[in-house]
Amino acid sequence: MAESSLFNQTGIQLTLLLMLIIIVAGLIVLVFKFLSVYSYILRRREYLEAQKKIKELSLSEIEEYQKREEELEFELPENELSGTLPSSDEKGMVRNINSVEEFRFFPSKRRTSSFLNYVSPQLTRLILLFMGTAIFWLLIGTSFGLYAGIKYVAPDVDHTSWLSFGRLRPAHTNAVFWGWASLAMVGLSYYVVTRVSNVENYNIKFGYVSLILMNVAVLSGTISLLAGINNGGGEYREYIWPIMGTFGIGVAFSTYNLFKPVAKRVVKEIYISNWYIIAGFMFIVIVIIVGYSPIWQDGVGETITQGYYMHQAIGMWFMMINLGLMYYFLPQQLNKPIYSYSLGALAFWTHILFYTLIGTHHFIFSAIPWRLQTTAIIASMGMLIPVAAGTTNFLLTFNNAWYQLKTSYTLPFYFMAIIFYFTGSFQGTVEAFRYTNLLWHFTDFTVSHSHLTMYGIITFMLWGFSYTLIPRLTGKEPPKLLVGIHFWFALLGLLMYVIALMIGGTQTGLMWMKKKPFIDGVINMFPFWLWRAIGGLFMWISHLIFAYNFYRMVRTKESFRIPRTPSEILAAKKQFRNTEFNS
């Protein structure tokens, strides 16, 4: 009877609809990419035909190309038509005679490369160090996560205390939170704030102090968690206070650094990106102080503080800064302005209004006062306003530019991140309903939801931003095929992960509501935990590919160009070492 009535619940119906939206969005990207692959195959075929034709060029054809190349390179002497006599106006018809060096009615040739570095080499180096160390922690943190996932299906794989699940899990979450995502966001913010403010006014030494302190905090925090030294204060709050204090000081140095260009900006207005970014840096310092201050850390007060800390860290740090970065990078990638500045302002202020009130929705039916639980549920419903405004703004910015999904290797990350932003945030609202909270809380469904948001939204955004920015800093692109493999492995792995845990978590909740023994739920979860491990493996492989792509963007560049002009054709012919070019 419980199963038959399950689908009559609004929360369940909305969750199914949201997952359907994700799958449809993935299929849309797949169709665009199929068209892109087909176009690539045709171009590759054309390239091979051109190479074959060049190899078989006859001597007369080569001479014809050489003659044509000389004709194209011919330049008319400056005085060929005007002569050498000085300019004069004996009848006084022209009042002012100037010498013009070039024809003004012809536009000057623009640089063909789209990679323009607008920041100083010193700042470029700092940003790349932030990104490089962030990727290091992505690999370390998700390796912990993958191994923890494997332990669900093979719990006796080892008996080392440092690698026990209770230590691996917080080491995983904190490494990807404070190591990967935080360092990447700070590095990207250093670029965006510069461009939006039109002035570079950073203290580079402070930037390096911030980089070192944040990395030292994550390194010492990871070691302490694996050694069994932790705060024990709740999720994402496992670092002991000296370590988290070090992290907070590191962020504070960057907060000061980012305030300076905004205060000294050349333009009068503060673009919406800087609203989000500066607000995020202000909030995280407050969140750390509130979360670790011992004043209210007892009894129910600690539970309320935990809800505040956990949700503000996600919503007012990770989400706030990434949305600000999206407002800068998405219009640039589409080469068009954001659809509506007003929608952006609405999303910003309602995000601040509602997100700061929703932490308690994780503790429905707890000892927390009922009025606080109800307030959190209402605020969770209110979060639909900024989510809908932001999603609408981003998707309408895509209007008349959807075709770019076919050829761009960055826009699929942007598009899926936007879809995950809507579905993951909406699903968080649905999970706050009293029935769904009763069904899903303390089950693997909550783990699914956290990955749908932190991975689907934050990490996909950061990947898109990374593939956008790093080539601008280095002038080197990643291998497009590997970027595509990275995208699909990450997306398919995430879908395996979240769908399996959503189904398994729902079944576990139903069994608990029927008063089934706890061990029955554990046994029932085994196949879903297996799919969790498989999905996690796909995701982990995509991270290795991303790390290699970062290396390629920093170190090397490979591409092929179809010879079309006479000079290119002749140069390609020389590469085949034909005898007619030998001296």
What attributes does this structure have?
0% strand, 583 residues
Question: Would you give an account of this structure?
Answer:
72% of the residues lie in helices and 0% in strands. The longest helix has 46 residues, at 10-55. The chain is globular, with a radius of gyration of 29 Å. The chain has 19 helices and no strands. With 583 residues, the chain is an all-alpha fold. The chain has helices spanning 2-6, 10-55, 59-72, 121-153, 165-197, 204-226, 241-263, 272-292, 300-334, 341-355, 370-382, 384-397, 404-407, 411-431, 434-440, 444-474, 480-513, 518-555, 566-575. It comes from Chryseobacterium gallinarum. InterPro entries: Cyt_c_oxase-like_su1_dom, Cyt_c_oxase-like_su1_sf, Cyt_C_Oxase_1.
Précis, in short:
This protein is mainly α and 583 residues long. The chain has helices spanning 2-6, 10-55, 59-72, 121-153, 165-197, 204-226, 241-263, 272-292, 300-334, 341-355, 370-382, 384-397, 404-407, 411-431, 434-440, 444-474, 480-513, 518-555, 566-575. 41% of the residues are buried.
Unreliable segments (pLDDT under 50, ≥5 consecutive)? 100-115, 577-583
Name the helix and strand elements from N-terminus to C-terminus, one letter apiece.
HHHHHHHHHHHHHHHHHHH
Structural class: mainly alpha
Summed over residues and divided by their number, the pLDDT gives a mean of: 86
- Determine the N-to-C terminus distance: 90 Å
Please count the helical segments.
Answer: 19
Topology, number of strands: 0
Envelope shape: globular
| Approximate helicity band | over 70%
Q: Determine the strand fraction and express it as a percent band.
A: under 5%
> How would a crystallographer describe the biggest sheet?
none
Integer-rounded radius of gyration: 29 Å
